[in-house]
């Protein structure tokens, strides 16, 4: 269940970050509400994930996947397209996350 909570936390965080642009400096109430609730929900899910997964793994996966997810969603919603070097960096982050999870740290508490 920890991994499901972690993925839900990543999605809540990514949604929150993407909505941040639309807040217009927190003067628009709907996107501002999405940002605040998104962060709160993300931390609730991350707290649940940490009940069964090590903090280091949760944080590494959360940060890495949030970066990639925010970038992908921003490309879809805001038409922000990045060059190949940036996407290569994202792939390197994803590989790093995979290596961390394939190591024994995910199973030590």
Unreliable stretches: none
Strand content: under 5%
Shape, per Cα inertia axes: flat
Number of strands: 0
Largest sheet: none
User: What is the overall pLDDT average?
Assistant: 89
SS field, number of helical segments: 4
> Helix proportion of residues, in percent?
over 70%
Q: Whole-Å distance between the termini?
A: 16 Å
Computed structural class? mainly alpha
Order of helices and strands: HHHH
C-alpha-based Rg, rounded:
15 Å
Features:
4 helices; flat; 109 residues; 0% strand
Please explain how this structure is put together:
The chain has 109 residues and is an all-alpha fold. The protein has helices at residues 2-20, 29-49, 55-77, 84-102. Helix 1 (2-20) runs antiparallel to helix 2 (29-49) and helix 1 (2-20) packs across helix 3. The mean pLDDT is 89.
Task: Explain the layout of strands and helices.
Blueprint lengths: L1 H19 L8 H21 L5 H23 L6 H19 L7
